[in-house]
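ugh ok fine here u go
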Amino acid sequence: MKYAFMATYEHEFSVKRMCHVLGVKRSGYYAWKKRPLSARARANAKLLEEIRKAFEVCRKVYGSPRITHYLKRKGIACGRHRVARLMRQDDKVARRAYKRRPQTTKQRPGARTAPNLLDQDFSASKPNEKWVGDITYIETREGWLYLATIEDLFSRRIVGWAMSDRMDESLVERAWEMALGNREVTPDLLHHTDRGSQYTSEAYQSLLASVECQVSMSRTGNCYDNAAIESFHATLKGECAFEPFQTKAEARTTLFEFIEVWYNRQRLHSTLGYQTPHEFEQSFRH
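structure:
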């Protein structure tokens, strides 16, 4: 195992230094290199090359479970533990979220709220049965950019979203209008949000009333009531906005591509049996 590590990093560190750190002799290492590789070693080397390609194609955000499913979809036989071991040996670590955030939920005194009809049941049997919405922040060198999103719980697809320099009612209204433009809704739709002033505003509530959907809101101070959309925002922070953008224009372009090209159409979701939201909806319709 030590010799295999040395062979992998020989182009980065001197053999002499690695032998000293690992406590092996150079003569032993060079003798090992002259031996023919075993069938297992050749198979591991071939699989590692596929893992490296997959890691790059998948934006360096997939851990071993998703890399395993990605490879299997390509017809490459592999096991999760084997993939995890090879990824560890090759220093392939998925990106993690950039942690820093301002307060986004501000309830207006006396605002008209709704009961929590969702009740932390994030399952749905068909599209447009349950939508959840929330606002998150995006940090740039030019200041904060705010992103409002609406997610369909059936497929985890982001059906509506909007960005703005201001966290006001118009932000969530534009996200809702995009969702209505993308989907056909019926009065049995349940729409769940927190109790922020944007969602309790008369203008937003009028939009919901116009399609006769059921309105549901999280309990005060309970982040678990809207955990599904919080999970999406955590994914976005970890895979896309993991460090501040240089400009707001850069952030807008990158977030558009992440949501519409990557997340909705290419990213494998564990809750969907490692299908994409687009694939999951297509399989339901057919």
